[in-house]
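TA notes, week 10

Several of you asked for a full example with nothing omitted. So below is the full record: structure tokens for the whole chain, then the designed sequence directly under it. When grading your own attempts, check the secondary structure regions first.
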């Protein structure tokens, strides 16, 4: 009888232990967190360069908007990743570092053109990252984050494309 009480008690506590354990995060979800975090960091870094080096007020304003909107988004992603037991990179990757280094060596209208071209490419890439997570991600919280962030990314892409069009006319 004692063994059946112990066995019964262990069955009662098993679901609690299972709920407390963090479920495994899929490879897609891990890739998403890495790519979204790196992209967000790059947006802030390059936005800071734009506020200092852009030739036009509209490009400076766009850069400031990237800082203001990506900073809290980066913080939200980092907090969510921490909940999932995932590490978030503290710096951008080599490709984004090279882009930033190239931007540091330009100013004025040359900066504007290079920055906006990079923003269009980066936001197109991030749009794909978000869509891939929405379609293929396993974690409902990360998918919800992507669903919430995708329209913002698309809005930024449109704004960058408008700035590019204005610069060419």
């Amino acid at each position: 009888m004692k063994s059946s009480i112990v066995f019964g008690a262990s069955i009662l506590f098993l679901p609690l232990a299972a709920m407390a354990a963090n479920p495994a995060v899929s490879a897609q979800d891990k890739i998403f967190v890495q790519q979204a975090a790196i992209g967000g960091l790059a947006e802030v870094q390059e936005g800071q360069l734009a506020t200092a080096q852009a030739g036009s007020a509209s490009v400076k304003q766009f850069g400031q908007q990237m800082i203001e909107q990506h900073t809290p988004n980066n913080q939200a992603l980092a907090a969510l990743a921490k909940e999932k037991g995932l590490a978030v990179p503290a710096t951008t990757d080599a490709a984004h570092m090279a882009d930033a280094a190239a931007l540091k060596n330009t100013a004025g209208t040359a900066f504007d053109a290079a920055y906006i071209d990079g923003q269009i490419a980066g936001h197109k890439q991030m749009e794909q990252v978000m869509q891939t997570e929405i379609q293929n991600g396993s974690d409902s919280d990360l998918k919800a984050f992507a669903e919430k962030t995708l329209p913002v990314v698309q809005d930024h892409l449109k704004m960058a494309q408008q700035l590019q069009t204005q610069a060419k006319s």
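Residues 69 and 152 are 9 Å apart (CA to CA). Use that as a sanity check on your answer.
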